């Protein structure tokens, strides 16, 4: 199960990297278009879609690598059961909020598909397509928070002192 979850987080990170390259391509295409007097419609919109996709798809991987900003002022002062209790409480809130975020992101994709919602730009992109990345990213983030909660409940979660990050 651990290999499958790590593969999921890593796969989303690689997909986020692909979308970052997509941002680069769209920006370069826009710059070159201005330089050589040609226009490719929708480059701004597609750059925005790719940027949002990259951000959402990288969330779970960033969490699992302990790269999210975390305020540990109170947590750092606690030891033993008090620290574990606060960790579990914080992770429970994170599971709840990320679950709600994932639910509404998936619902948004469904509604956009159902209503045939398209972008207002000249590209007229069906909005459910770029929204899929947001839904997938939030769903995988929810899974990552559940994973962290289970690891904490079992006492298997890695501790970081706040000044270090986990790199492989």
UniProtKB/TrEMBL annotation:
Key words, A-Z: Cell inner membrane, Cell membrane, Membrane, Transmembrane, Transmembrane helix, Transport
Subcellular location: Cell inner membrane
Example of a GO MF term: transmembrane transporter activity
Any one Gene Ontology cellular component term annotated for this protein: plasma membrane
Residue ranges of domain Tripartite ATP-independent periplasmic transporters DctQ component in the record: 24-154
Protein's recorded name: TRAP transporter small permease protein
Chief subcellular location: membrane
Pfam family, one: DctQ
Role: Part of the tripartite ATP-independent periplasmic (TRAP) transport system.
Membrane-spanning intervals of the chain: 12-33, 45-63, 88-108, 128-151
A GO biological-process term: C4-dicarboxylate transport
Entry annotated with the keyword Membrane: yes
Oligomer and partners: The complex comprises the extracytoplasmic solute receptor protein and the two transmembrane proteins.
Superkingdom assignment: Bacteria
